[in-house]
Structures are given as C-alpha cells and as structure tokens.
Amino acid sequence: MRWLVTGARGLLGTDVAAHLCGRDGEHVAALGRDELDVRDPAAVAAALDAHRPDVVVNCAAWTAVDAAEEHEAEALAVNGHAVRLLAEACAARSVRLVHVSTDYVFDGTASEPYPEDAPPNPLGAYGRSKLAGERAALAHGHVVVRTAWLYGTHGENFVRTMLRRAAAGERVAVVTDQVGQPTWSADLAARLVALARTGAPPGVYHGTNAGQTTWFGLAREVYAAAGADPALVTPTTSAVLGRPAPRPAYSVLGHAGWARAHLPPMRHWRQALRAAWPYLADAAAAAPSPGGAR
Fold first, then answer.
1. Sign of CA dihedral 283, 244, 64, 144
2. Pick the CATH number of 2-286 from 3.40.1360.10, 3.40.50.720, 3.30.70.270, 3.30.70.3280
3. What separation in angstroms does the CA of 93 have from each of 21, 97, 144, 220?
4. Residue ranges per structural domain of the chain
5. Are 74 and 39 in contact (CB under 8 A)?
6. H/E segment holding residue 199
7. Helix (H, G, I), strand (E, B) or coil at 30
8. 294 vs 17 pLDDT, higher one
9. What is the mean predicted confidence (pLDDT) over 91-107?
C-alpha cells in the first residue's frame, strides 16, 4: 500500500511513519508541517498527485489547547478547514482518509464511557475546531479516530514531563478532578494502520487505551515506575490551576465501535505504560522535554 502521513514530525505522526517504514510492500511519504501545509489547497492537491497514496493518515493538528482560546481562527484553520480540504481532495481521488480527533469534542458531564455516537458538545475553542474537522471528514465518507491523553517518546507530553520531574525528585501538584485514558502513541499508531488495512467502514472509532485514571493517578504511576516517591505528587484541582481552556472532567471513551472493524479494543493503559517505559526512559535520558503539570 501507498501511505501519506501528514504532521509526520509530531508526537503521533512520527510513530505512524515509524510503524510503516521498513515494512515490505509499504510506500510511505511522511510529510511534516514544513513539507506540507495542510491549509493550502494547492499544496494538498500537489502532494496527493505526487505521492498517489491509497491512504492518508492525518496527524496534522493545532494541539495548543489553551492558546486556541485566544486564537480560535488559527486553530480552526488547521483542525477544521484543512481537514475539509483533505477530505474533499481525498474523496475526489478515491483515497481513504483516516483523521485523528480528540476527547475534547465532549463536555465531560457523562458518568460512563462515551459511545462513538454520543452527541458532541465541546467546551472550548480547541474542541470546537476538532469537531469541525470530524464533521468534514465524515461528510466525505472517511474515518475519524478520537484519542485522548496521548503520550510518547517524541515532543512535549505529560508523561515525559512527569518522568523528568520524578528523576529530579521534584514535588508536583496534579489535578484529581479530570478522568480519562492515558494512551501510548505507538499503540495508537499501530491501530490507525490496522484500521486502514482492514478496510473498516467509515465512521467514528475511539482510539484510547482501556481503563481510566486521573492525571494525579497517572503522575503517581510515573513517579513509582521511575523509582521516585509517589507522595511527591500532591493533589490539586482544575480551579486552582486556572488554565485558560476548560477541560472535560470526564472524557473516558467507549470502544464498542471496534467490532465493526473486526479489531479488539486497545490494551489497558497500565499495560501500555509498562511496554512504553523503556522507550520513555531512554528518550528522557537523551533529551528530556520541558512542560508543565496538568
């Protein structure tokens, strides 16, 4: 198969490209932001015509959640309008688009996992921009995969930040009032590829590791794995941290949709974290990333 990965220098895009590269029969064009501006219709058309993919995996996104509150138009340009361009261009060429979305399309008022067909109701600008992209992809018969609490060895993310702070023996305050599903980017990358290969029907899928925890619980898990005292992680609330963008208090996603693709749900987040740990530790030792607590 021929693949085009957008946003291929980011946290998830890097893992998708790495998962595909070197496999027999796979031809991969991994394009970062400097190589393909997904907001530019001429550039999108040229990339599709030059690389002739069977599948496009769209990992390009505005992910600065707080900054989106003041720059909603810019976030919408990447997360909404650009997805429409990709969706239209792919549909015109009979190319399959697998688009990555987010748990932030929900308002967090649920008390049980959100099914794939739950009505979205985003709280902030970032969620609104991602919902616009979802709707554009679905309107053209493509696949949307929502993920959440993503971490990995590339770029800035919560787990790498906690690992760095644990190694330094720092005390850190982390929120206890947000519940979700930590998801290893390498697990999601493999699932995105599997989903495209199976020829799964268009629609929404929830690409998160199973189980649930709070950011506080995840931070303590990281500290313990790093050999640091979990008591160094102290509880706080979202109100105390006072972030510009509202976060969904409960964004656990249900996984019933995988049955349509004849694929099992992704493994439990603790299993994934254990599998990711050697890679995370090596990456932190080589080039620890800056970042802040949630």
1. positive
2. 3.40.50.720
3. 24, 11, 19, 48
4. 2-286
5. no
6. none
7. strand
8. 17
9. 98
Least Cα distance to 10 among 47, 58, 56, 60 occurs for 60
| Inter-residue contact 3 to 26 (CB < 8 Å) | yes
Q: Which residues sit opposite 173 in a β-bridge?
A: 234
Contacts of 205 (CB under 8 A, 6+ apart): 116, 143, 144, 145, 146, 195, 257, 258, 260, 261
- Nearest CA to 179 among 276, 241, 106? 106
Q: Tell me how far apart the alpha carbons of residues 274 and 50 are, in angstroms, rounded to a whole number.
A: 40
Q: How far apart are alpha carbons 289 and 154 in whole angstroms? A: 9
**Tokens, residue 140:** 């053209």
d(C-alpha 39, C-alpha 80), whole Å = 9
Its pTM surpasses 0.85: yes
Give the pLDDT band (50/70/90) at residue 287. Answer: low
pLDDT tens-digit series, residues 49-85:
999 999 999 999 999 999 999 999 999 999 999 999 9
The mean pLDDT value of the chain amounts to 95
Q: Active-site residues: which are they?
A: 126
Query: Alpha-carbon distance 172 to 14, whole Å?
Result: 29
Distance of CA 120 to the CA centre of its chain: 17
Asked if the model's pLDDT at residue 219 lies above 80, the reply is yes
pLDDT digits (tens, 9 = 90+) for 77-91: 999 999 999 999 999
Angle at 260 between CA 258 and CA 262, to 5 degrees: 70
CB count, 10 Å around CB of 152?
A: 24
